[in-house]
Amino acid sequence: MKSIALFLLLLAPSTLLAKAFVAPLAETTDNLNYPSIEFMSVSEGLDLPLASDPESLPPEAPQAKTMRVVVYRSEIYQSLVVETLTTGMEGCCSKVARRQSIDLEGFAAHFGFRGEISGFSFSGWSSHNSFRFTYQGAPFHATLQSDDRIHIERDMSANNSFKPTPLRGAA
C-alpha cells in the first residue's frame, strides 16, 4: 500500500507538489505606456509613518501608499507589473513611486506550466500587499514582501473549479 501511495505521489502533477515560488521583483524603468492593458486593480491604502505633523507638510508629500497590479499583453504573452502608488494630503498628487515586474516565465516553470505565458487572471486583494489569482485555471496566492521579493504559493483554500487531471485507472 505504501509503495502505491509513493508511486501516485511521484506521478502527481508538479503544480500540486511544488513549493512556493520566491523571487526578486525586477525594477522596471520602462516607459509608463503599456502596450495593451488587460486588467488593473488597486489595493486598499496604507498610511505611511510621518516624521512630522501632516499639517506642516506640503500637500504633495507622500502620506499614504497603495499597490496596483497591472496585467498587460504583448502579442500572445502576458506580463505582470506591481506598482507602488503614493498620495499626498487628502489624495493629492498621486504618483507611481515604483514599478516592478514579476517573472511570470520563472513562476510558470517553477510550477510546471508549459507553453505560452498566458492565462493569468486576478481574483482579488487579500490584504494591502497580497492578492489571489489563477494561472491557467490553477489558484495561487501572492504576497509582496518588504525586501522586494514576491512569495507565490498554491492557494489550497481557493473555492474555484480547478481540479487536477486524475491519473488513469484512479477512481
Q: Can you characterise this structure?
A:
The protein is mainly beta and about 170 residues long. The chain has one domain (about 20-45, about 60-155). About 10% of the residues lie in helices and about 40% in strands. It has three helices and eleven strands. The protein has helices at about 1-10, 15, 105-110, and strands at about 20-25, 25, 35-40, 45, 65-75, 75-85, 95-100, 120-125, 130-135, 140-145, 150-155. Strands 2, 3, 4, 5, 6 and 7 form a six-stranded antiparallel β-sheet that branches. The longest helix is centred in the first third of the chain and has 10 residues, at about 1-10. The radius of gyration is 20 Å and the shape is elongated.
- Radius of gyration based on Cα positions: 20 Å
What profile does the largest beta sheet have? 6 strands, antiparallel
Order of helices and strands: HHEEEEEEEHEEEE
What form results from the Cα inertia axes?
elongated
Kindly estimate the percentage of residues that lie in beta strands according to DSSP. Answer: 35-45%
